[in-house]
Amino acid sequence: MKKLVKPINSFKKVVDALLPYSELITADLSTQGKVIKIESEFAKFFLLEQGYINMRRINDNLIIATLFSPYIIGLSFYSGAETYYSIELGESCKLYQIPRVNALNAIKKYDLYREWMRIISYKISFLYARDISLFRHCNREVVCSLLSRLMTLPTEFRENITAIKYIEQRCTLSRSCIQRVLLSLKKEGCIEIIDGYLTKVLVLPIESYY
């Protein structure tokens, strides 16, 4: 499976078109750690113009995805299902909300169906690739996959979260298990970790697809 590439231009084009019809919901200067609960009817989309957000599973607080701007949240929600996640904001995050009806009308008005479908297709592929990366046969593969993903994220994000914390928040492995795998990978020369922070990936047996 090839590594998934985010259609940034499509996201940017759609987000830019929808922003004039949307409402800013992160007016505060400091947004780090703030949580937005999703309404049960979910009658709106969220537009991430700046920064990043964590999507946390409600029942166990596990981070199921970390998403960076530009991004649109809410496309995959099905009205017949329960709301299973909340949105945790990252630092200096700009998040807007827009009613679903208004968003779809704007997509039609500006003839953005092609970009809209690319975004939806990407989101479906993202979930598939994420699941492949996490549902591995052994703990080492899970850790390697998450390390591979972490290394692709922006430097400012990696510099503010330790490798063990990043992994621990995104899988069900115990902290001690993750520590053992990280120590083993470091001894084998697969990765470089300084003061707990991942600084370099030299070689990993398993890589992330997303």
TrEMBL record:
The chain crosses the membrane at residues 62-81. InterPro entries: cNMP-bd_dom_sf (IPR018490), HTH_46 (IPR041687), RmlC-like_jellyroll (IPR014710). Residues 141-205 form the IprA winged helix-turn-helix domain. SUPFAM superfamilies: cAMP-binding domain-like. Coiled coil: none annotated. Keywords: Membrane, Transmembrane, Transmembrane helix. This is CRP-like cAMP-binding protein. It comes from Xenorhabdus ehlersii.
